[in-house]
């Protein structure tokens, strides 16, 4: 395929070298005459293992050229990759000026040719950028029609500087954000010979996941460093502890606890987060990430309250009151905290939780309830239908599969707010709202 690549920085140069090593012929476009001159001379503008040799070979074979002339590059190719920078603005948002400028340039060149053209955005952008910002520029500027003679895909890049050539050929997967079959087939051809699955998704999902990946990697690094600093500070062997921590691939290094749902609670998590932060403080070690965990959890509870408030309905059927399903432990239960707040704000609640029985609560569990909501028994009802009949709004903090099935079977008209996580309810009910999700994927 004949490909133009806009932006010959790290991503552009690596993409150019790797694609030109396959069946493609590549023209690299940049605004820097210094970079273009270096590429023309077969020299690499960036330092990366194996990149200089690959670029030189490609230039010598005549499958890689470089130019300052964006218009010519578009006219001579059938697909354009955009790999320009998206640096931070002073407010933390991303500078889109380079992307906008390239999109306008591609669009105006497209007016001069009639062949179909595909534009693949590889720069990292926030969700919505391609469709709200770049697509209008490309369509209006070119006068073309999407998916007829102009095809657009968001295709995040996963390479890491230092190992970028290896990463290009061995990514975790290739993500193609497009709803259009032809675009998908066309862009997938670029990655013939690249390892891993090619996954297709919406443009916004592709944009979102790239940012999520980077943020999660950053989170993991800061977590490891803060946690190890506290452990080391108090004399523990941090490396030994972290190696053991990493061996748990059921709960630690896994998808556990990574799906959106309700806030956490219980007798362990909030307490032990506080304990590690306090240990750090005692040893003079700042732990801003660890210290933000419990407040972050509280903010999620605030979101749940605000979501219920926005419905403007006071009569509520509230399902699940213990800190999680399948236990009667109410300590630090986010459901109990939310229910308490609703009652304090004059909501009329009936609470259903088949496992929680006030007469069976003992010790710290009982003391916690007596402190937070001493009259819980007044609101509890073990008759599910009676509770559902009471509610003009059904709020699920947690509910077992049979209970959810029963709710569906009642073919409800009542709106449902689900705090627990995406479930089949989302498809079966007409007025279903997740706390921060729309429908079962
Ligand atoms: N560097 C990485 O490891 C990495 C990895 C994955 C994704 N990304 C993302 O990829 C994008 C590019 O990153 P990078 O590190 O390669 O950036 P970079 O700053 O190294 O390179 C950007 C290039 O674009 C050129 N450019 C600017 N305006 C141009 C225009 N109008 N026409 C043509 N070229 C133009 C610049 O001169 C520069 O050479 C960013 O969005 C980044 O977040 C980077």
Shape, principal axes of CA atoms: elongated
Low-pLDDT runs of 5+ residues are none
Number of spatially distinct domains: 3
In quaternary terms, these chains amount to single chain
CATH fold assignment of the largest domain: Rossmann fold
Please give the order of strands in the largest beta sheet. Answer: 3-2-1-4-5-6
CATH architecture annotation of the largest domain: 3-Layer(aba) Sandwich
Helix content: 40-55%
CATH class of the largest domain: Alpha Beta
Largest sheet: 6 strands, parallel
Distance between the terminal alpha carbons, to the nearest Å?
A: 34 Å
Query: Which small compounds were modeled alongside the protein?
Result: nicotinamide-adenine-dinucleotide
Mean pLDDT across residues: 95
CATH homology superfamily of the largest domain: NAD(P)-binding Rossmann-like Domain
- Structural class, by secondary structure, is alpha/beta
- Rg estimate, integer Å: 28 Å
Number of helix segments?
A: 19
Number of strands: 13
Beta strand %? 5-15%
């Amino acid at each position: 395929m004949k490909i133009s690549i806009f932006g010959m920085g790290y991503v552009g140069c690596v993409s150019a070298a790797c694609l030109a090593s396959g069946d493609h012929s590549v023209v690299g476009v940049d605004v820097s005459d210094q970079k273009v001159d270096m590429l023309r001379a077969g020299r690499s503008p960036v330092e990366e293992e194996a990149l200089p040799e690959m670029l030189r070979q490609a230039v010598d074979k005549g499958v890689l050229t470089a130019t300052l002339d964006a218009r010519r590059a578009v006219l001579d190719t059938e697909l354009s990759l955009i790999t320009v920078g998206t640096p931070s603005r002073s407010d933390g948002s991303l500078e889109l000026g380079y992307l906008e400028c390239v999109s306008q340039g591609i669009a105006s060149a497209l007016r001069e040719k009639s062949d179909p053209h595909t534009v693949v955005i590889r720069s990292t952008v926030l969700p919505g950028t391609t469709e709200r910002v770049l697509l209008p520029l490309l369509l209006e500027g070119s006068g073309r029609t999407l998916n007829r003679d102009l095809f657009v895909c968001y295709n995040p890049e996963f390479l890491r500087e230092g190992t970028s050539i290896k990463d290009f050929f061995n990514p975790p997967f290739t993500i193609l954000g497009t709803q259009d079959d032809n675009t998908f087939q066309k862009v997938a051809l670029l990655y013939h010979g690249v390892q891993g699955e090619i996954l297709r998704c919406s443009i916004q999902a592709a944009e979102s996941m790239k940012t999520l990946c980077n943020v999660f990697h950053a989170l993991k690094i800061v977590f490891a460093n803060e946690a190890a600093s506290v452990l080391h500070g108090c004399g523990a062997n941090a490396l030994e502890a972290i190696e053991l921590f990493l061996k748990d691939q059921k709960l630690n290094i896994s998808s556990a606890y990574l799906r959106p749902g309700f806030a956490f609670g219980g007798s362990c998590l909030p307490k032990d987060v506080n304990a590690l932060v306090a240990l750090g403080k005692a040893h003079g070690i700042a732990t801003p990430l660890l210290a933000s965990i419990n407040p972050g959890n509280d903010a999620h509870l605030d979101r749940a309250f605000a979501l219920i408030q926005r419905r403007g309905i006071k009569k509520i059927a509230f399902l699940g009151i213990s800190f999680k399903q399948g236990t009667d432990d109410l300590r630090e239960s986010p459901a109990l905290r939310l229910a308490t707040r609703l009652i304090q704000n004059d909501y009329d609640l009936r609470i259903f939780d088949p496992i929680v029985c006030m007469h069976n609560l003992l010790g710290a569990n009982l003391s916690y309830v007596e402190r937070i909501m001493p009259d819980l028994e007044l609101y509890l009802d073990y008759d599910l239908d009676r509770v559902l009949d009471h509610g003009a709004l059904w709020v699920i903090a947690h509910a077992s599969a049979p209970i959810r099935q029963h709710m569906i079977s009642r073919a409800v008209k009542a709106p449902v707010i689900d705090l627990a996580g995406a479930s089949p309810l989302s498809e079966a009910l007409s007025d279903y709202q997740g706390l921060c999700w729309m429908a079962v994927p």
